[in-house]
Amino acid sequence: MTGPHPAVAAARSAVREALEGFEAGTRLWVACSGGPDSLALTAATAFIARKRGFVAGAIVVDHGIQKNSGRVALHAIDQCRLAGMSAVFVEKVKVGREGGLEAAARVARYEAIERRVIAEGGVNPHVLLGHTMDDQAETVLLALARGSGARALSGMAPRRGSILRPFLGLRRRDTVAVCEAMGLSPWLDPMNEPDGGSKRSALRGKVMPALVDVLGPGVIPGLARSAALLQADADELDRQARAALRTSTPVDAWPIEMLSSLPEALRGRILKMLAERLGAGPLTSTHVKAIDQLVTNYRGQGSVSLPGGFEARREYGRLVVVGPEELRRQET
Predict the structure, then answer these.
(1) CA gyration radius for the chain?
(2) Angle at 130 between CA 127 and CA 135, to 5 degrees
């Protein structure tokens, strides 16, 4: 008696490892677009759920962006059930345009998934996403092009809160092989075409093949390893910054002398957390750099405007973050 196809075995093993320690009855949701990555994840999760006593389902989001989106969603339902997932929900969303179509679709998708997860309840619900090593490498390169810091360059975490990404150790070709071996028919999104698609699609179809051609096939695993290493560093720096915030006495003001004595990597995180926990944000690296100038290179410059109507300013040897209500009171 032969075992499963090697790609199928690898996918199941990845899901099994991601769910190690989860108790029987845990509620699992696979976000399934109908593409090869999420469809392979659906099949692997359905199999492991049956073996381990988890309660699994799939959520298909109909973005309504393309004319045939309804038909695509129905096809995804059929394929999810063929993959062994009996509980499948379709969530229709309306995608805005804020931040660009891709970003707006992502926001709408995650909000729809969260609503369904909350509505269904269950034991310790988690959402599984089908991002692969190839997606991780692309994410790192996009962050590098934007001039992002260690957190962004660390890519996507295998686990962040209730979000799991079991396939970050698998290649995209592996998920395609899973679908072929199991007789599944994934949907290939035309918006992922290199020409006329998003920046990520162009990166995937043009830049990555060129990098592999020049640097060799190890470039994608190498980028993924770099992300994992940076992930550990970023997590530790974030932990130290949170610990420093917990031991601080003031909520909206910090002594400049103390801040200026901190290492730059730690100080930047603290400044971002300090402002965002008061309601400002999300802060960009430009905001954080401007606040840092108040601490380390003060030349009498005025306050720094922050998202949400907040301001950061230097007063009597302290860094102060002022909210919109306090600013209105000061103006009257």
Answers:
(1) 23
(2) 130
Which is more confidently placed, 150 or 46?
A: 46
- Sign of the C-alpha dihedral, residues 164, 166, 172, 177? negative
pLDDT of residue 113: 93
**Cβ neighbours of residue 135 closer than 8 Å, sequence gap 6 or more:** 37, 156, 168, 172
Give tens-digit pLDDT for 253-307: 688 988 898 888 889 998 988 888 888 878 888 899 999 999 999 998 889 999 9
Asked if residue 3 lies in contact with residue 9, where contact means CB atoms within 8 angstroms, the answer is: yes
Residues forming a β-bridge with 318: 255, 315
Those residues whose C-beta lies under 8 Å from the C-beta of residue 161, and which sit 6 or more positions away, are none
To 10 degrees, the CA torsion angle through 129, 37, 219, 265? -10
Residue 158: asked if its preceding bond is cis (omega within 30°), the reply is: no
pLDDT tens per residue, range 31-54: 999 999 999 999 999 999 999 999
Distance CA 295, CA 258 (A): 10
Q: What is the pTM of this model?
A: 0.82
Contacts of 277 (CB under 8 A, 6+ apart): 245
Question: Distance between CA atoms of 28 and 122, rounded to whole angstroms?
Answer: 9
CA distance linking residue 27 with residue 71, whole number of Å: 28
What structural domains does the chain harbor? 6-222 (3.40.50.620), 248-331 (3.30.465.60)
Question: Which sign does the torsion angle of CA 189, 73, 30, 142 carry?
Answer: positive
Would you tell me the crossing angle of helices 264-276 and 219-246 to the nearest 10 degrees? Answer: 70
CA-based nearest residue to 38, from 231, 217, 140, 167: 167
Residue 312 three-state SS: strand
